[in-house]
Amino acid sequence: MNSAAGMSEAFAIAEVEAKKVQARISSDWSRRSTKPNARGVVRHPLFNEMDGRRTESDTWYCLHCNSKVSGHEIAKNLWHCPSCGASPLDIFSVPFWLEEGDDQPTPYRSPKKGGRGEPVIEVVDNRLRLELSEDNVTLLIRSALLDDAANAGERLGALLAEISFDEELGVWVTFETDYWPEEKEAIQARAVAKALGVSFDQDIVLCEPPFAWPGIAEFSSNTLEYTQTMLRAYAEQSTGQGKPNE
Fold first, then answer.
1. Nearest CA to 66 among 95, 46, 41?
2. How far apart (Å, rounded) are the C-alpha atoms in residues 60 and 89?
């Protein structure tokens, strides 16, 4: 594409498409907006004067880059500034934004070679890249902890674990001791960290468990079984409190 032949072919295709786009855009505009008269006067396709008539002039100014453009040039470029590409909303017949002492508008000079300036080549790399953000790494590590979990209690421990990530320090996981056995290694989570190219460390702390008798979860194969067992335990506790002391 960087060859002269390739660039010429690309410009030819782009010019054909540009003319199609111009035709669609200007279809709602009056002829006076796209065809200047003999004096170069052209009508703005959007803006009106105070009396309701469309603004007309042979010279136009760009609010965006402070360029001065002829009526022929602005109409030819479909009311986009030929210097900076600003839209018709930035094109005015009077440079009202200038104050005393400001630089005067710069006259636009059309390029001589082929009617266009030097091409601006932008190489766009569309290949997908993995972003190792804290949210993404944390999500993968927590998913791996669920893979490591052998029962409902350990799955709760994986969900309750605090996971932090730092590009230099790697992954650090803090487990709740009531739901994650102190001696249990997070094998899958450590493997995932290694695959991501980051270090992995873990520790364990004692916190207030969200449910009473957390040990019940250790003997539950799934969450429904744990929930039903836990509810029965709460119900029995409530019933027991209502009995008189023997």
1. 95
2. 12
Q: Note whether 90 and 50 are same-domain residues.
A: yes
Q: Is residue 128 part of a domain?
A: no
- Per-chain mean pLDDT for the chain: 85
**Ranges under pLDDT 70 in the chain:** 1-4, 22-23, 25-26, 49-53, 112-123, 240-246
Q: In terms of Cα–Cα distance, which of 159, 199, 192 is closest to 175?
A: 159
Domain co-membership, 184 together with 99 = no
Over its C-alpha atoms, the chain yields an Rg (Å, rounded) of 36
In angstroms, the CA 93 to CA 109 distance is 18
pLDDT in tens, 79-117: 889 988 888 899 999 999 998 888 899 998 877 655 555
Question: Residue 30 and residue 25: Cα distance in Å, rounded?
Answer: 11
Q: How far apart are CA 88 and CA 74, in angstroms?
A: 9
